Amino acid sequence: MELKKLVPVMALGLVIGGGGTAFAADTVKIGIAVALTGPLTPYAESEGMRCMADKVNKAAGADDPKVEILVEDNRSDAQLSVSLGQKFLDAGAQVITGLPFPDALIPMTTMAQSYNVTVYSAPNTQVEMQELGTGNFIAGAVPDPINAAATAAVAYAKGARKAVLLTSEDSGSWSAKLPEWFGDAFTKAGGQVVGKFSYNFGISDWSPQIASIKALGEKPDVIHVSGILPDIGILIRQLRANGYDGWIAGSDGFDDPSLEATVGKQADLDKVIFATHGVIGNGGAIDQFLKECKDAGFKVNGIFDALGGDMVAVIAGAAKKAGSVDPAKLRDAIRAEGGYKGVTAETISFAEKQSYPIKTVPVIGFADGKRALITEVMPPNIPYLK
Amino acid sequence: MDYAIQQGLNALAFGSEYALIALGLALVYSIMNLMNFAHGEIIACAGYSMYLAILIGIGSPWLVAPIAIAAGALVAVLFERIAFRPVRHAPTTTGLLTALGVSIVVQNLLTLLISPRPRAVPVFSELSRTIFIGPYAISLLQLLELAVVALAIGGLVLFLKHSTLGLAIRAATREFSTVRLMGIRANRVIATAFALSGLLAGIAAIFIIARRGSIDPTFGFQPVIKAFIACVIGGFGSLGGAVLGGMLLGFLDVAIIVLLPQEYGGLRDAIAYSIIAGLLVWRPEGLLTRRIELGDKEI
């Protein structure tokens, strides 16, 4: 074919191609490097995200933006999370996320900054991320000091006055500082911290720590730990077997259905409390969301899927409000006044704090082996946060 | 003093678990020069055999425990037959990579066929009970672990010293080609060593499950890393060294937990590995391995 004949054909191709690009631009791509395998599997939010994206896309009008979720397994590995983040950026994602810990999220956020892309971590609670100052990070959950203050208030109200803290350096401030903030709030309420001991994730025998607790001059009536399963389940079982009958307090790491099975005996859960992101089991909005997702064939598990649902609902709402899927405009719209309807809260708004939502913190306990809501308020004595 | 004795008992329990797994690793290494990183998956398979036994209604720990031990031995023999026998005469690095490959394949299979999420195995929860002897709290599990590990090591020593196959294994650890010239079948010796190592892995799986109460596909990985370090400390290929290394590592772990001030908790691994590195500078071939000729191994 002669060149002058080729030119109109190429131009037509460009028009069609351009049209194709315009169509693709109406889709928000969210890339999630999630723990589908490895020790952090119980805390994956991707099925909830996929389920919400399915709902949003089915309900979308002809002019509404669609949501596409790109899912990759990070194998519970921070470095792999970062590499997958780059893959999502290359694929044109407007929002990316990875393992919800700073060792994965800080490099991802820095990397995404040059693309003007937002890193939105639905389950992230760590203050390191709030202090990063890159402007393109958003956490879907309230920061750890609020979580710590919530359980401290409940433990003190239940009569606990002396606390022991168990800390680990294995997942940043979530496991190292959250118990300390519990101690700060507990002390401010009138309690006292009588001992601090450290451990590593993956621990299968807490005997040395328990022996150290037993050797303390003052016996604790609450022990706080912010860890993952099955470590926490083993701790509860071993503490009870050693005769400890006080309170055991914790964070959202407790909030997985495998907790009850790992602990085993129903009675061992009697004085266990934890602060989390929403209430499951009361027939509320989260239960309804999870049921609808299960019915639709998504393998949702619990509260972390609900947070994933929040994330997609907020991003889809923001894209609609912005009338654009441009990453910067999208982020501005996420932070717009009024917020968006969520799964774990009626309204999720980032307008006030920019990088985390204002939400009450439910504290869950157990009655006859079943989870029961104790309080759901914004707690007093919140430490650290300005 | 009471506190020190209490922590000493804890250290013994830690050490005995490491020793049990290290012994399985050392047994295979001493014959095949194979660093069997798939040993963790033998432990995992033994663990999943308990989970499956419970699923089909076998709830008694007296039945579940032998199933786990038998499953451990069977899986170890299968690994040897399918994966390690074809590379037996290949360089050591090929064996190492094969072991890593088997480990990954089995982990992926468990993830795909069962679940990546933890599964409850509550069958040994009664073992978490604590027995008080004077001021000392000892869990039934710790006591049982110490006793069973002592029995397993004793049984292994008897087998190696007094049975024909045991003698063949010991001879093979020194000079395999001569053993074959004496008419002993290599396949049989190696398969027996793998079966014994699988049996030890099955016993270890019972204790780990009794403590954790749940299982997941990466369940055997962490204990094998500890056991590997125990073997390095004791001297790879030395069965006595594996036990000594496991015990030392148990005491080191507990000592660091107890003695390191809370604010330095993040340095725990760095300190432990620095001490181990120091030990290896002093004894590069491990504590119980004599400086010997290349190809000649000590048991």
Give the rounded overall mean pLDDT of chain A: 91
- Rg of chain B, please? 19 Å
The CATH topology of the largest domain in chain A is what? Rossmann fold
- Look at the helices and sheets of chain A and give the structural class: alpha/beta
Assembly state of the chains shown = heterodimer
The helix-strand sequence of chain B is HHHHEEEHHHHEHHH
Shape, principal axes of CA atoms of chain A: globular
- Counting helices, strands and paired strands, the structural category of chain B is mainly alpha
Q: Largest interface here, residues on each chain?
A: A-B, 41 and 42 residues
Please name the fourth-level CATH homologous superfamily of the largest domain in chain A: Response regulator
The CATH architecture of the largest domain in chain A: 3-Layer(aba) Sandwich
Radius of gyration based on Cα positions of chain A: 23 Å
How many strands, what sense, and barrel or not for the largest sheet of chain A? 7 strands, mixed
Question: How is this structure best described in words?
Answer:
The complex is a heterodimer of chains A (386) and B (299). Chain A has 386 residues and is of the alpha/beta class. Chain A folds into two domains: 3-142 and 283-348, Response regulator (Rossmann fold); 144-276 and 361-377, Rossmann fold. Chain A has helices spanning 3-24, 46-59, 78-90, 102-113, 127-130, 144-157, 173-176, 178-189, 207-214, 231-241, 258-263, 285-295, 303-322, 327-334; strands spanning 27-34, 66-73, 95-97, 118-121, 137-139, 162-167, 192-198, 222-225, 247-250, 272-275, 340-341, 347-348, 361-367, 370-377. Chain A has a seven-stranded mixed β-sheet with strand order 7-6-8-9-10-13-14, sandwiched between helices. The longest helix of chain A has 22 residues, at 3-24. The longest helix of chain B has 31 residues, at 2-32. Chain B is globular and about 60 Å long. The chains are: A alpha/beta (386), B mainly alpha (299).
